[in-house]
Write a structure and sequence with these properties.
The complex is a heterodimer of chains A (109) and B (115). Chain A is an all-beta fold and 109 residues long. In chain A, 0% of the residues lie in helices and 46% in strands. The mean pLDDT of chain A is 93. Chain B is an all-beta fold and 115 residues long. Chain B has no helices and eleven strands. Classes of the chains: A mainly beta (109), B mainly beta (115). At the A-B interface, β4 of A face β5 and β10 of B.
Chain lengths: 109, 115
């Protein structure tokens, strides 16, 4: 079973920041938090991952709480093309990605 | 950098027929994964290869599904005979190395419909 909990859906206005939350209260010390997204009819796309520290790349920022029990993916300026299902995944030493049902983000004009 | 290539994109067969899917991972990626994604659900891992050896096939229905990666590069996934519940998207992913915390990169999948 997936070790994460995400809201089933969220809306965001185009140009605004999209903040997607994820709870992973049972995460272990050596487990990473990964984020992927899946646009309709495409395969999942890797976004970002982190262990303890906040991470930023050209796509997004990942904020992990100090106790590591939750995290937030931030898309700083959402566009219509960011409409997708976003998956938060805890990846352990088995190398598996165990997907839940994710958050369906709808960006509106 | 070329991504993970999969073919065909779509396949329609009748139940009890056989079908095969092909995957070409990103060049240099040692680890290859096959996932099954049923409509409305997240992908579920079926099998994982490190080079040409199987690392994990615990979720593969071995009575009907088989997979191989003979030369440690391309891989094929076969279903024989197909059942109605096999209707799904079959995704292939690859990563640089096993247990390296390198991200997995996915192809766009093969959508299988069973009539």
């Amino acid at each position: 079973d997936a070790k994460t909990t995400q809201p089933p859906s969220m809306d965001c206005a185009e140009g605004r920041a999209a903040n997607l939350p994820c709870n992973h209260s049972t995460i272990s010390g050596n487990e990473y938090v990964y984020w992927y997204r899946q646009i309709h009819s495409q395969g999942p796309q890797y976004i970002i991952h982190g262990l303890k520290n906040n991470e930023t790349n050209e796509m997004a920022s990942l904020i992990i709480t100090e106790d590591r029990k939750s995290s937030t993916l931030i898309l700083p300026h959402a566009t219509l093309r960011d409409t997708a299902v976003y998956y938060c995944i805890v990846r352990g030493d088995t190398d598996k990605l165990i997907f839940g049902t994710g958050t369906r983000l709808q960006v509106f004009p | 950098e070329a991504g993970v290539a999969q073919s065909p994109r779509y396949k329609i067969i009748e139940k009890r027929q056989s079908v095969a899917f092909w995957c070409n991972p990103i060049s240099g990626h040692a680890t290859l994964y096959w996932y099954q994604q049923i409509l409305g659900q997240g992908p579920k891992l079926l099998i994982q290869f490190q080079n040409n050896g199987v690392v994990d096939d615990s979720q593969l229905p071995k009575d009907r599904f088989s997979a191989e990666r003979l030369k440690g590069v391309d891989s094929t996934l076969k279903i024989q005979p197909a059942k109605l519940e096999d209707s799904a998207v079959y995704l292939c992913a690859s990563s640089l190395a096993y247990d390296s915390n390198q991200p997995q990169h996915f192809g766009d999948g093969t959508r299988l419909s069973i009539l």
